[in-house]
Specification:
The chain folds into two domains: 144 residues, Rossmann fold (3-Layer(aba) Sandwich), CATH 3.40.50; 66 residues, no CATH class. Helices cover 32% and strands 26% of the residues. It is built from nine helices and twelve strands. The strands form three sheets. Strands 6-7-8-3-9-10 form a six-stranded mixed β-sheet, sandwiched between helices. A hairpin with a 2-residue loop joins β1 and β2. α4 packs antiparallel against α5 and α5 packs parallel to α6. The protein is globular.
């Protein structure tokens, strides 16, 4: 099982510091969700964990080794990342896209193998994309397109998957569809999943572990029921809310205060 930690991590662009002296350890075999206000550094942190951004200070350790010193293909055999809003070349089919997940295993003189094909077929089956393998990715719905990209990460056959806002631009049905898929990958295969989400209720429902980022550091972390409180939401997001218990899942449910067209609008909160 893969392990991923960050030690004294400082990230930024030019003179601007985004993350400052941060320490985290991603729990193995669990779903971890990064939360925090826009611009707090969630996506920057995720990119650094995948070695897409060089730290200004500190390091990221993958399986006991400094990720900065690992060969690119070795990183890709251990860790897959799905960035926010990936762009697909025009006309590329689902099958052609997912095949790219085998790149870390390819060599100049090595032919496409049975193992490569089996990995691609398994990834397509796991994401329910087998019926769409010949369809251009840019012709798919948002939810189908996201599943195709997730299939690409699965074809890498890594135990660790990082996803930056995988539900962005999706309607509610497709958000649940994608998150259910990730939940199943964790439940059935024991994959460690780290993702950025904005919806606190979905984060609470699907995460085993939540990390809240504020002021360039970890503000709080732990199980959703221990972490998502009205005090945390106020301190991190500058928003007043009530926290109730989700009547179906028993997880924290955030009810924001605000001015809506509600029969209780005049009742003092």
């Amino acid at each position: 099982m893969q392990t991923l930690t960050a030690n004294n991590l400082t990230l930024g662009f030019g003179d601007k510091i985004i993350i400052d002296d941060l320490d985290i350890a991603i729990p193995k075999g669990e779903i971890t969700v990064l939360i925090g206000p826009n611009g707090c550094g969630k996506s920057t942190l995720l990119r650094s964990l995948a070695r897409l951004l060089k730290p200004k200070d500190g390091n990221v350790i993958l399986n006991g080794e400094d990720i900065a010193k690992m060969r690119t293909k070795e990183v890709a055999k251990n860790l897959a990342i799905l960035p926010q809003g990936p762009v697909t070349p025009d006309g590329l089919t689902v099958y052609e896209l997912v095949k790219q997940g085998r790149h870390p295993y390819r060599q100049f003189i090595k032919q496409w193998s049975k193992e490569d094909e089996a990995a691609v077929q398994q990834a397509l089956a796991s994401t329910n994309m087998l019926d769409l393998i010949d369809q251009p990715v840019d012709s798919l719905s948002g939810g189908q397109r996201q599943r195709a990209w997730i299939a690409l990460t699965l074809a890498q056959q890594t135990d660790l998957i990082l996803l930056d806002e995988p539900t962005t631009y999706l309607d509610m049905t497709h958000q649940i569809d994608v998150l259910d898929l990730l939940f199943e990958l964790n439940e059935k295969d024991g994959r460690t999943i780290v993702m950025v989400l904005h919806d606190l209720n979905l984060a609470s429902r699907y995460a085993h572990h939540i990390i809240a980022i504020k002021d360039k550091k970890v503000f709080a972390q732990g199980k959703p029921e221990d972490t998502i409180t009205s005090e945390l939401v106020h301190d991190v997001f500058q928003m007043k809310c009530n926290i109730a218990c989700d009547p179906i899942f028993g997880t924290p449910m955030c009810i924001p205060h605000g001015r809506g067209n509600c029969i209780f609008a005049n009742i003092k909160q």
